[in-house]
Amino acid sequence: xxxxxxxxxxxxxxxxxxxxxxxxxxxxxxxxxxxxxxxxxxxxxxxxxxxxxxxxxxxxxxxxxxxxxxxxxxxxxxxxxxxxxxxxxxxxxxxxxxxxxxxxxxxxxxxxxxxxxxxxxxxxxxxxxxxxxxxxxxxxxxxxxxxxxxxxxxxxxxxxxxxxxxxxxxxxxxxxxxxxxxx
Length: 183
Known about the structure:
By secondary structure, the chain is mainly α. It has four helices and no strands. The longest helix has about 40 residues, at about 140-180.
């Protein structure tokens, strides 16, 4: 038996013409707006990068003036490994927070790139400030010193960007998973 969607005039079993065929549609809720990945990456990457740069600059000026004792080697290894662990934690935290806010893992990776930008700029600033002090004290040719710095800087940048992007992506995966659970 086939029923037509429109009422048949004179049919006692068809609904009246004023009867609605369906319920009115429910109002659609808009999904919560998430911030843009680029803005979140710039904001958190800059904040964390400036904090990491401040830690690096502080340690680069404090450690050379410390009094050395017989057990100084082990102490300095611990003291220099602490900022490295802090740096790894900040990559994870930056990726986690950025992905949690945006729901996108790429925000975490972009955050690590901004962290690396600020950190690398602080390394260059410290190098140029310390280079003038070192060249006054030592008779090392500028070409040799600049070449060594360029090799160190390129190696440092490649390792830092690769490690930072990986750790931030790992933190971003966790942040994205928690972001979807809270919806």
